[in-house]
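Problem statement: downstream parser choked on a complex file, so we are re-checking the raw output for the coenzyme A run. The parser issue turned out to be on our end (a line-ending mismatch), but while we're here, posting the original submission so the record is complete.
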Amino acid sequence: MEVEEEVRRIVDQVKELHDSATSFVSASSQEELSLRQRSSVVDASIRRLHSTLVSDKHLDPKLFDKLEEDLQRARCLLADGDTSSFLPFKPQGRFVRMFLGPVNVRASRKDIQLKVKEEYNSYRDRTALLFLVFPAILLTLRSYVWYGCLPAFPVQLYEAWLLFLYAGLVMRENILRANGSDIRSWWLYHHYCAMAMALVSLTWEIKGQPNCVQKQKGVRLFLQWAMMQGVAMLLQNRYQRQRLYTRIALGKAKRMDVVWGETSGVDGQLWLLCPILFTLQGFEAYVGLQLLRTALTGVVAEWQVLICGILLVVMAIGNFINTVETLMVKSRF
Amino acid sequence: MEVEEEVRRIVDQVKELHDSATSFVSASSQEELSLRQRSSVVDASIRRLHSTLVSDKHLDPKLFDKLEEDLQRARCLLADGDTSSFLPFKPQGRFVRMFLGPVNVRASRKDIQLKVKEEYNSYRDRTALLFLVFPAILLTLRSYVWYGCLPAFPVQLYEAWLLFLYAGLVMRENILRANGSDIRSWWLYHHYCAMAMALVSLTWEIKGQPNCVQKQKGVRLFLQWAMMQGVAMLLQNRYQRQRLYTRIALGKAKRMDVVWGETSGVDGQLWLLCPILFTLQGFEAYVGLQLLRTALTGVVAEWQVLICGILLVVMAIGNFINTVETLMVKSRF
Ligand SMILES: CC(C)(COP(=O)(O)OP(=O)(O)OC[C@H]1O[C@@H](n2cnc3c(N)ncnc32)[C@H](O)[C@@H]1OP(=O)(O)O)[C@@H](O)C(=O)NCCC(=O)NCCS
Ligand SMILES: CC(C)(COP(=O)(O)OP(=O)(O)OC[C@H]1O[C@@H](n2cnc3c(N)ncnc32)[C@H](O)[C@@H]1OP(=O)(O)O)[C@@H](O)C(=O)NCCC(=O)NCCS
């Protein structure tokens, strides 16, 4: 029988394949383990040696500089080359563990890590546009169609979208971090705050007529802040995407940049971007203070307005401090 | 110089390590590729042969059964053994892609897959308790402390928690699925619906005095449903954890169960569990209909109440149909 023959052949093939898979998996996991062990030993030695160097007062300064650079290069090679996936994991953030459980989000290959980063950038581009357009439409309709009075449903839809958006952003940033990005923790906290704000604003009752122009002042300020956030994101994206491409094009690994100095073309852009960012951060603080005033003078005496005001002021201050710190770190090279 | 010597040694070690890592990565990715190709070829052949078998009318029925079983065994070996990680990916769900981007959430090793599943179960256990306790406290305080009137804040806190909880559950279920779980899509949709409900209920204004007993009827029903959901989850968890342990203890691979019949001890439990589940589903539908009535007779004429009612009825019907279907599939063996 022909079919019988074929079934027998397939069964044999599957068994064979299974055996090769099993032996491959066990062999490679053994080799992986040994690479992992060697990597963490070497990593620890580099650290130890670095502190010996620093504490050694009798060293010739020139020699010291040379040795420091050698060590730094070694560290770069270890952290950015193919060895990087064998270094001990940074523990994954709480947020990731809460939503994903014990799944490993670290990509094992460099090209996938870059893909994750590019996808993050294009996700931000897509959302930044909506960020601008959605509240702009709401505010326009308010003035020309709704006689100064925002209906609750579209605003709440927007707030729900914001909540999901920020949750997605912060999840991706956690993942980027697990994949070795140097993103500052503040930018993650910033997005947790923004999530909290979206959540709080969902419970915020949007009052209608009469007198809604005054009662809805808080909501209006919130929407204006959101539009401004969209502008900030678009600008930042343009800059960061260019930065990534320059890096990829030059084939420089991440940490190497710091040693060898930033690519100057993009660095110039940063100095253009910053005044705009500072202005936006000032506006953020202003909106926050306005909300606080609205809450405290009692025109809209809801706790939601108070919390949103506080969050905005905190975010503005944090953004400012961290932007300044970034600039200071960069100008040192 | 001693330090100089040591730095040189470390630099050499790092280079060496880097080279072994590079050659390991390239060798293993080549072997992986070939295993991937062989797996998908064999997988396709099994499929093809299966359809040939089924369409071949001249085959002796006994021989047919034997060949079918051989093929099925081959498929099990392929899908559950070490080869499983080389089979073509099921595409990851939209929800996962939206929140995580192009990260691979499939665990490469069987033991990690089991760990993910166990962690999912214990996550559910932890949350099921809160599910029961939180609304119970709210409802008790309402009767004895708050004079029949729920304050908005704790209820909204609970609703926000529900939203995050369901998002986490559905994310983990998507991940389990990517790791080869046979979970029906409905249970995922069920949790999307529950998420939608939590989101909608957040925008639902919780009215205070006067007359809040009547105005808050919807909220009260919602909390009662949540408690009931907690009971269902606890029972289901007990059953499913036992099922997982029996499986692990017997060392049977997942799909094999279906071929060789369920482990009878746990199967008996299912028949005990189901009447309770059906009762709970009945109650779910009842709560939904009550909400619909409240919305339509106009005591609380908010769209949120209407939507929540519809969602509850849909969930009850879907749960019922899918529980019945599961039972039917199981009783066939
Ligand atoms: C100041 C700024 C332009 C610096 O960007 P930068 O030059 O990329 O900063 P760094 O070199 O320190 O970046 C380190 C890493 O963090 C990332 N990063 C920096 N700022 C980030 C941010 N706001 N969000 C997400 N990721 C950020 C970078 O992409 C980089 O990632 P990588 O290590 O994977 O390549 C940027 O932080 C910024 O735009 N901040 C202001 C944001 C703001 O205030 N927004 C709200 C306005 S109201
Ligand atoms: C009926 C029921 C007990 C069957 O459970 P079961 O015997 O595990 O069902 P199956 O054998 O079809 O399970 C297949 C897979 O889906 C998973 N699964 C089944 N129902 C699930 C559910 N409700 N949620 C999450 N996962 C579920 C199982 O764990 C199993 O995973 P695995 O392939 O990784 O091992 C279960 O589906 C259930 O409890 N349903 C009712 C839920 C309900 O109605 N809740 C609300 C009450 S108002």
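For whoever reads this later: DSSP finds eleven helices and no strands in chain B.
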